[in-house]
Amino acid sequence: MTDEKLRSCILKRQDSKISAEFQKEAVTIFGCGGLGSNVAMMLARAGVGRLILYDYDAIEYSNLNRQNYTFQEVGASKVFTCKARLENTIPYVQVEAHSQKVTQENLEDICQNSRLFIEAFDDREAKRLLLDYFMEHEDKFLITASGLSGLGRLEDVQVKYLHNICLIGDYKTSVEEGLYFPYVSLIASLEALEALKWIKNGGYYGNE
Fold it and tell me: Which Gene Ontology molecular-function terms are recorded (predicted)?
């Protein structure tokens, strides 16, 4: 079966015109942990044509309660394992995997790869680095998360839009409350949803 035929079969329950727009787009995902590994799979399943992944960590046992990996993959590279899982699930998706840390020095070059970026870090300094960069580069678009710990309350989750930046979370929970897959995956789903709306809307977030 050709890639196009397979794509048509997999996406037959979606609007074909919207799926065609997804296919044209590239999305960069910073981090392949609880948020990133799940966002990447959602975007691949929806038909986003190209995913560019960045992460430099290895899979640990403590990741398995919320990240898209298995017991047999503990110790392996997150970014390359995520790439393999995406390609095994959706064979026609184009995935670039980069095992490197995102820094002040390489961020400018990295941000030439796409227009839309999803922040899925668990490091506050890395989050701040991205926010500072995107606040100064309004021709690039960032979806970021803050507050996704504990078991949460749905009514506390908010989606906010600030020019080229989309912020998602409850903005108050902290990692000391624990990390649980149902709540983490809820935030990951919202990040993926906002990314798909951005593509569908031709480069505008869901409130446009």
Answer: tRNA threonylcarbamoyladenosine dehydratase; ubiquitin-like modifier activating enzyme activity
Tokens coding 126: 């890395």
Name the pairing type of β-strands 165-169 and 158-162.
antiparallel
Q: Which superfamily is assigned to 16-201 in CATH?
A: NAD(P)-binding Rossmann-like Domain (3.40.50.720)
Q: How far apart are CA 164 and CA 203, in angstroms?
A: 10
CA-closest candidate to residue 36, choices 91, 95, 92, 90: 95
Residue 189 token pair: 């789903």
Answer yes or no: are the C-beta atoms of 141 and 164 closer than 8 Å: yes
Q: Which two tokens stand for residue 124?
A: 């506050």
Tens digit of each residue's pLDDT (9 = 90 or more) over 27-77: 999 999 999 999 999 999 999 999 999 999 999 999 999 999 999 999 999
Q: Is the pTM of this model over 0.90?
A: yes
Is residue 82 within a helix (H) or strand (E), and if so which, with residue range? helix 78-89
Residue-range domain boundaries for the chain: 16-201
- Which pLDDT tens digit goes with each residue over 95-124? 999 999 999 999 999 999 999 999 999 888
Helix (H) or strand (E) holding 110: helix 107-110
Partner residues linked to 166 by β-bridges: 143, 161
